[in-house]
Amino acid sequence: MLRQSLQQKLLQKLSPQQIQLMKLLQLPTVALEQRVKEELEGNPALDEGRENLEEEEERYEERDDAKEEHEDIDLSDYLDDDTPDYKYQISNKGRDEEDKDIPFSGGVTFHERLRGQINLQSLSEKEAEIADHLIGSLDDSGYLRRDITSIEDDLAFRRNIMSSKEEIENVLKIIQQMDPAGVGARDLQECLLIQIRRRESNSFAKRIAIEILEKYFNEFTKKHYAKIIERLEIENEDLKEAVDEILKLNPKPGNSMNTSGKAVQVVVPDFTMEIKDGELEISLNGRNAPQLRVSNEYKGMIDHYQKSKEKSKSDREAMTFVKQKLDSAKWFIDAIVQRQHTLLSTMRTIAEYQKRYFLEGDETKLKPMILKDIADRIEMDISTVSRVVNSKYVSTPYGTFLLKSFFSESLSTEDGDEVSTREVKKILTDLIEAEDKKKPLTDEKLSQLLRDKKYNIARRTVAKYREQLNIPVARLRKEI
Average pLDDT of each block of 10 consecutive residues along the chain (480 residues)? Predict the structure, then answer.
């Protein structure tokens, strides 16, 4: 049964300007530059440069023909806003006309280099097809993750090549002889063996290393060095030299050929922090403050329209378009200014909150700090602070850091003091770095040492912090 009812509701909706500000807030410096560029290209009412009304007025007063120029403007040119993009494009090149565009080189990929080496081998047409398929099956690290049986099926169904396991393995051995050493291996053990066997030296350390990799690889990965010494009947020093040989090998040979094709990402700090006379000075990266202004030509069009006596329908429609672009330009400029204010306000509050740390650079001086602490001080929403700290970097005398890294939960000591979890992690890292690598500290022992320093932390919490710091367990930290 359908019913009609009248209800009164109170809803909160964000205006387009607020949404635009939120989107600009979360952009880092490099992304902001691209966003400003897009806005300049899409809105003709927005110009680069600072607003200087006096100079513009003088310039127009000196030009006697300024009024005539405005009268010559055909406002109907601005009406075709709904014209499809394809009508502004042309495709009138002849078939034989040469394209003068210069392509950009993306570098040679890992797989292309291997195929180049295969072309130098004396292979039959069938072997070349198998080799091409095998190279295409390698991952970026240079490993062949698929088993031979699956590759045999792939060749039959995808390339209509009937081959045997022996043929595929023979071609794989040829690939394994190519550079970089270790490419084409099916697991880490095979990868390391391929590399060490290609070494020219015939030292005792090399022979022991090969035997370890062949017979005691599992014990080696788990660092059960005592078992290896006992079974191989060697001295501790012999094992150390053999392990040093193994550690020189590359576990991911494919990566050594991929680096040239990868883009290097450079961190551009949004803030710069300096210490002058014991005080912190915060400045915003100049690239975060683009010089933008509303186009004077568009303002002139509005003035001309208001002064004109006869206003046709096309003129009114054109003015609607012009006003929309002018309003959009003003909103964008206001959003950029508001963004700068919010960024500086947030960064200055963080610096003041963590002043002891920023003055001394000692991580143990970091205070527990959550988003709400900063949001309350600058009287903004937590989501606003989150957008600022998640993607912004600050350059300090101690390095460049992500703002988010200064936030941490609190932990109570035996004395009842609140300390930052990052402070505990720093102390934990120092304990592990200072440990005897022949007898690394277990999580239980680390927990006891922290309790001795009045940090009441359980063993499982130590394990959690250690994993967050990417520090392996005691057994894997053991050295000879």
Answer: 72 65 80 85 79 47 45 45 48 50 57 86 87 88 88 86 88 88 89 88 87 89 86 87 88 69 66 90 83 78 69 73 82 87 92 90 84 90 87 89 84 70 85 86 88 84 87 81
User: Which residues span the domain enclosing 430?
Assistant: 410-477
Where helices occur in 178-307 by DSSP H, the ranges are: 188-197, 204-215, 217-221, 225-232, 236-247, 296-307
Which pLDDT belongs to residue 56? 44
- Return the biggest CA–CA distance within the chain: 107
- The 8-class DSSP code of residue 144 comes to B
Decide the pairing of beta strands 393-396 and 399-402. antiparallel
- Which pLDDT does position 291 carry in this prediction? 81
With b meaning 16 or more CB within 10 Å and e meaning fewer, what string describes 134-162? bbebbeebbbbeeebeebbebbeeeeebe
Q: How many CB atoms lie within 10 A of CB 129?
A: 17
Provide the edge-to-edge strand list for the sheet that holds 399-402.
279-284, 271-276, 393-396, 399-402
Show the tokens assigned to 442.
């277990």
Query: Does 347 fall in a domain?
Result: no
CATH no. for residue 452? 1.10.10.60
Peptide bond into 472 cis (omega under 30): no
- The reported pTM is 0.56
Judge whether 457 lies within some domain: yes
420 occurs within a structural domain: yes
Number of domains present in the structure of the chain: 1
In 404-454, beta strands by DSSP E: 410-412, 418-420
Residue 418 included in any domain: yes
Phi, psi of 242 (to 5 degrees): -65, -45
Contact of 48 with 54, CB cutoff 8 Å: no
The count of other CB atoms within 10 Å of the CB of residue 276 is 7
